[in-house]
Amino acid sequence: MASGLLNSHVKMTFQQTIKKQVAFEGIGLHSGRPTKIVISPAGPNAGVLFHVVGHTIAIPALSSSVVDSHYATTLGANGTRVQTVEHLMAAAAGLGIDNLDIKVDGAEVPAADGSAQPFVSLLRSAGRMTLGARRQPLVISRPIRVGTESRWLQVLPCDTFRISYTLDSTHPAVGTQVISCEPTEETFVGELAPARTYGFLKDVDELRRNGLAQGGSLDNAVVVGKRSVLNQLRYRDEFVRHKILDLIGDLALLGRPVQGHVIARNAGHALNFQLVTALEQAYGAPRRAASPARELIPRAADLTPAPGFAAL
Ligand SMILES: [Zn+2]
User: Fold this and answer.
1) What does the pLDDT read at residue 293?
2) Distance 309 CA to ligand 1 centre (A)
3) Which CATH class name applies to 5-136+288-302?
4) Dist CA 51 CA 204 (whole Å)
C-alpha cells in the first residue's frame, strides 16, 4: 500500500506539524461574511487549536468543543464559536498533520470552493515537520454502532483505517453511490479532497431563513435542482466522496487517528458527532480534552497578512 496520509497517520509513529505560517481568506458558507485564517506550526501533543481574534480562550478541535453539528460542525468555548471547521480538519487529517494553531478573524472557516482542496494546497505549501512525540491511534477492538435503520455509522476492528460509505438518495441526480477505500495521502488528495459540499435548490430558502447557506453559491457548492445538477460535477459520484470527506473531518475531532473500518449509510455531521462521542465513551477521550481552556491572547496584529490579503 502506498505510504501517506490517513493510513500512514495510523501507522507512522511520530506526530507532524507544518513548517511555516500560511494564511487564507474568503467568505463563510453559512455566515456569508468575510473571514480569514492564519495557520501556524504547533508543538507535540498540542492537537489542533482554534483561536478567534478578540477572544482569549482557545478552542481545541475536539468533540468536547462541538456546540452544533447541523449542516456544519461548529466548535465553541466560553461563548466563542468557529463554524464549518470540517473541511479544514479533513485536510489536516488527510495529510497526517496532528498539531496546528489556527487563528480565525471571523466566525467561520472560509468556504473556499466548498471542498478541502484549497486547504490541502495551503497546508502543503507550508511544508511538514516531524515532531518528537508519538501518535496514539485509537484502535477499535469491538463493533460500535450509532443511528437508525436508514441512517447509521458503524466501526469494526480492522488492521488499517478504512471507510465504506453508501449514500442512497431518492433524487435522480444523486441516486445510490458507494465507495469503499483505505485512504492514503495520494488518494485523499486526488480522489476525496476536491469533492465539494452540495445542497438541494428546494432547501435553500429554508436554510437561509435559519441563517444557514448565506454565502452559498455555485462557486462553493454543488447545487442540485429539480432533476439535475446546476453546475459541473468534478466526479460522477462527487456526493459520496464529499460525505467521506466530511466524515474524515469529523473523525479528526477524536484528536488521534482511528485504526478501524468505518461503515456509513446516509450519515451527516450530527451522526458523525454521535459516533465520535460513542467512541470516546468506549475508549476515553484524549487527555488534553480535560483542560480545553488554554489561555492565549490572539490579537488582530498577530495575523500576518499574506501578499494580496485584503484588510477587512
Ligand atoms: Zn462538507
Assistant:
1) 40
2) 25
3) alpha beta
4) 30
Instruction: Classify domain 138-286 at the CATH superfamily level.
Output: lpxc deacetylase, domain 2 (3.30.1700.10)
How many helices and strands (H and E) does the chain possess?
A: 7, 18
Q: How far is the CA of 50 from the centre of ligand 1 (A)?
A: 19
Around ion ligand 1, residues with a beta carbon closer than 5 Å are 197, 246
| Total Cβ atoms within 10 A of residue 220 | 20
Q: Which residue has the higher pLDDT, 238 or 300?
A: 238
8 Å CB contact between 89 and 61? yes
Q: What is the pLDDT of residue 214?
A: 85
Per-residue exposure over 120-149, b if at least 16 CB sit within 10 Å of its own CB, e if not:
bebbbebeeeebeeebebbebeeebebbee
Q: Which helix (H) or strand (E) holds 246?
A: helix 238-251
C-alpha cell at 35: 473571514
Q: What is the pLDDT of residue 211?
A: 82
| Separation of alpha carbons 87 and 102, rounded Å | 14
Angle at 81 between CA 71 and CA 217, to 5 degrees: 40
Domains 5-136+288-302 and 138-286 share a fold: no
Domain boundaries along the sequence of the chain: 5-136+288-302, 138-286
SS3 121: helix
Residue-wise pLDDT for 29-57, tens only, equals 888 999 999 999 999 999 999 999 999 89
Residues annotated as catalytic are: 269
State the amino acid at position 244 in one-letter form. Answer: I
